[in-house]
Amino acid sequence: MKLPSSKSIRARLTLWYVAVLTLILAVYIAVVFFFQFALLERQIYHDAVQDVETVEALLFFDPAGHLQLQQDYFVHPQNRLLVDRLMEVQDLSGQVLYRSSTLKNFPLDGAQFPGEGTDSFNERTTKLADGSRVFLISHVHPVEGHPLLIRLGYRLTSLEGRMLQFALILLLGLPIALIAAAFAGYGIARKALSPIDEMADRAESITARNLHERLAVENEDDELGRMARVFNHLLGRLERAFAELQRFTADAAHELRTPLASVRTTGELALERNPGADEFRETVSSMLEETIRLNQTIDGLLILARTEARQVGETEELVSLPELVHEILKLLEVVIEERRVSVSEDHDGHPEVPVCADRSFVRAAILNVLHNALKFSPPGSRLHIAYSGVTIESKPAERVCIADSGPGIQAGEHERIFDRFFTSRNPDTQLSSGSGLGLSIAKLAIDRCGGRIFFDKTATEGACCCIDLPVGQCPPEKK
Amino acid sequence: MSIVSPRQRILVIEDDKKMARSLREGFDERGYDVQVASSGEEGFFVVFSFRPDLLVLDLNLPGRGGLEILRQLREQALDLRILVLTSHNELEERVQGLREGADDYLGKPFAFSELMARVEALLRRGQPTTPLHSLAVADLILDLTLRRARRSGTSLALTDQEFDLLLYLVENRNRAVSREMLARDVWHETSRFTPIDNVIDVQMARLRRKVDEPFETKLLYTVRGVGFSLREPRP
To answer: Is this model's pTM higher than 0.80 or not?
Structure first.
């Protein structure tokens, strides 16, 4: 069934409701009509059989040998009911012995057909020569020793007329009922949906400025209440994300302004001093260095945005942590050698299982962490990498911890160190700080893989950064 | 400095005036015949009057966008190399640009030396090249088949990584290469935010110790704020 599409749910609901109701009522009317019709037919049959029995008792041959019907109304009062009775009697040779006056000399269904009325009362409908439909019942009965075929018929015209009237009443009632139902349905739908309109109005008025506003929840437990609650949660998340974005934008602007200011000052001073060629070269080099720093910051911000936006599920594969760590150690080999850092590895003996994650994400994270650890490692110190099996929320996970012998992390900075553009108050580490985005990228990358990254607060010497990644089933079609 | 003869023609379609001026000066200094167009429509006509060998096309143009110009030029089936410049350095855009018929793609901001390297490579394309077995700069000789380097007859003990780095510097001799170029072309780090700058610096220092320190003439130079460069000593 195709309904015209409408912009309002209320109208659509009402349309559907009326359509379904029409269908149900139509079926109902049809069933009632035919049931009633069948019932009346049964009644006629029953009456007719009784009538045949009565008539059989009233037939006699007069002395002239003509078949007669005893018309004694007072002896047989029920006969009175049968004024419109059509009756024909034949002998078995087909000769018509009696025909009621109501038949106006029309034959009642011609000659006997084989077996008609011999065993039981034979019922059927037939048509008279004048075209009127007749319910016919026949029976063979002996009258004074002569077996006779008695046919009784009743015109169906009045029954059909009554049934037509009945159908008309039912069909006339249908549109009235439907119109009433449509109005009621429309009203009910309006009442049920009115909170949605209110919510929409309210939601429309919420902008970035008043993100703290919430929708009113009338009934917590019904569908609309649930929707309002979900909506409010969404607003909450939006509000937090928006606040974070604002903070981030401010930080980013600051981080971009600093090198810009440096470029500007360097340039201005150089022009003021009217330098020689060498000093001029020096100035330009310094400015170029700052532009590289600017570019790295922008790249970092883009990576963060892209990591945040990327769908992880499609790019997951099985990743062996020790293998990845070795690959990165190989990349950093020259730095390790140059700083004379000795790297030791330790497995806790559990069977190593590959994790299911986006390889480039995990690689970026481990590279950043290892790079940091190396950066802060004093020459000749030790870097310890430990692998172990742990559980995250009762699911198995692989952990890799990277411990350096550097200045470590100041109390209270273990979490904030992952913030974007975070720089420690620790003077030992400030000199070698980079873009301030490395660890944020690492954290976001690991978070997106369903893992976690943290600095061990119990580490006494140096910093110890641990990465946990869940051991999961990768989709089978991917390696 | 490369000798270009006869002068090859480069058309720059770039709407940023400063950028256009720098590119014109840069190409001009290196001996190319340069013209600059500041919009797609203008550029489209200059292509037919100027008949450049190479087009440097900025994708972010007012009016007709760079991609559209690219498409229309490619429909003309001209013998024209196209290098696309853009600040939207996303992978998808890069792929789209190359699919539309760009020969190469460079994201802004770029090192001018890298642009030069790519321009030269594009202009060389199509010219017959004989596979090289060795490369020489002054007294430094690289054997490409055996992957060995010698200087003044002394064999240099280089690791694979060091050889690749030296080879890249020799191929780009007299031109500064940025750390970004090295990370991508020598270390094959695809991510632009991989902190391997100090890996490169350390590797460079080691290479210098082996290639330059024992010898009188220095070949390797650090160009502060740009990167590194291997220069042929002036006679």
So the answer is: no
